[in-house]
Amino acid sequence: MPSRSDTDDYLSLFLNDIPLMDVRAPVEFAKGSFPQAVNAPLMNDEERHRVGICYKEKGQDAAISLGHQLVSGDIQAQRIEAWKRFIASHPEGYLFCFRGGLRSRLTQQWIRDAGINYPLVIGGYKTLRRFLIDSLDELTESGDFRILSGRTGTGKTRVLQQLPNPVDLERLANHRGSSFGRQVTPQPSQIDFENRLAVAMLKAHHLKGGAIYLEDESRLVGRCALPDTLKERMAQAPLLILEQSLEDRVQIIREDYVVNMCADYKQRDGEEAGWLNFRDYLLGSLERIRKRLGGERHRQLHSIMEQALTQQESNGKLHAHDDWIQPLLQEYYDPMYDYQLRQKQGQILVRGGPATLIDWANAALPAQLSS
Predict the structure, then answer these.
(1) Is 224 a catalytic residue?
(2) Given a cut of 50, is residue 371 above it in pLDDT?
(3) 62 vs 6, 7, 76, 138, 187, CA distance in Å?
(4) Out of 54, 97, 224, 262, which one is annotated catalytic?
(5) Contact at 8 Å (CB) between 162 and 231?
């Protein structure tokens, strides 16, 4: 493998999805890393904990000595083999630790002793994270945003993905943004969400250009919080209002939250357990808005939902779900959306169905890129 230099070209790493080997401990990786990073730790959590205590009590030299004792022999050989597998799969990648210091240099040396030169990221995780935070702040301040808005069930995410330069906040947060929005896979940590968002914004700015389209979201997308500055910019940005008939909206909700979610649970958990977990998901989502619905209305919708689930389980028919979807849209989500729309500060640029909005955005694109 030809020798490559260590890098401080952080923008290139993220724009080009360069593979990164994160040699920090698993507990550090779980708190937050980068979209293209894989954890291949120098020390496991227990080893790191013991070395940390030694560092506080006896200083750096004693901590380094203990680290070498803990990661030696077969353990060291196993770690090196894991690094070699990563390098073989990702010869264009880089490694990093927290600050680009002792752990990454030691990893680099052990790999070199095994006959491989593999570069590191100068400054490590801390510098990469700072670069993304600063970049997101700058792009939020200077970005030209367009907000795709519309009532629940209009299929905003489907339309967003067909616009010229979208950043899909719900995909980045792995959550659809409502009380029913949980996915079968967990959400990222807040740090991971912020890092994903910054990378997506960098790509939208540098690789595509022009206005960035965002779906109208609350401050929280599930448990992931939008940065306050971005939420403020979104509240002032121009709007595209997506409109669909009530019948179409009910169908979209049924497809997204009944058909697709049931399939996702069964794929993850198997037929029987998947059905039970899907059932719990749907009833639990309704339970989360119980107080806002009021006790009596919640009981009515809960009963209708249970009957629809029973029918779905017995004969596979789905249209009984429409009997809870439609009143939930009309009586709960629509009034809430109408109120929120009245609070918006941004100019409404266009209203209409999916084709109208997509055509408008594409027609506006040349003017945006030439300005």
Answers:
(1) no
(2) no
(3) 28, 30, 19, 43, 39
(4) 97
(5) no
* Residue bearing the bigger pLDDT, 149 or 62: 149
pTM to 2 decimal places: 0.92
> What's the chain's average pLDDT?
94
Please give the helix or strand (H or E) that residue 64 lies within, else none. helix 60-70
Virtual torsion, Cα 135, 141, 142, 143, nearest 10 deg: 90
Is domain 10-130 classified as CATH 2.60.120.650? no
Instruction: List the one residue out of 352, 367, 354, 349 whose CA is nearest residue 160.
Output: 354
**Per-residue pLDDT tens digits for 305-354:** 999 999 999 999 999 999 999 999 999 999 999 988 888 878 999 999 99
Tens of pLDDT, residue by residue over 177-224, are 888 999 999 999 999 999 999 999 999 999 998 999 999 999 999 999
User: Helix or strand or coil: residue 88?
Assistant: helix
Tens-place pLDDT, residues 21-30 = 999 999 999 9
Domain ranges across the chain:
10-130, 143-371
How far apart are alpha carbons 300 and 235 in whole angstroms? 35
Q: 331: part of which helix (H) or strand (E)?
A: none
In angstroms, the Cα distances linking 59 to 47, 64, 97, 99 are 16, 9, 20, 18
Q: How many CA atoms lie within 13 A of 107 on its CB side?
A: 32
Closest to 103 in 3D by CA, of 47, 56, 57: 47
In the structure encoding, which two tokens stand for residue 6, read together?
A: 């260590």
Fold for 143-371, please state it: Rossmann fold (3.40.50)
In single-letter form, the type of residue at position 182 comes to R
